[in-house]
Amino acid sequence: MTGAPIERTVGAPLFSSSKLSVLRKHPYFADLEPEAFDQLCRYAKHITLKRGTTIFSKGDPGTSLIAVISGTVKISISSPDGRNAILNLIEAGEIFGEIALLDGLSRTADATANSNCELFVIDRREFIPFVRSQPTLAMKFIELLCARLRWTSDQVEQVILQDLPGRLASALLRLSDKHKSAPQGRTISITQQEISEMVGMTRESINKQLRVWAARGWVRLEHGAIVVLKPDALQELVDAGSNDGV
Question: Closest Cα to residue 97, out of 32, 21, 106?
Answer without folding.
Answer: 106
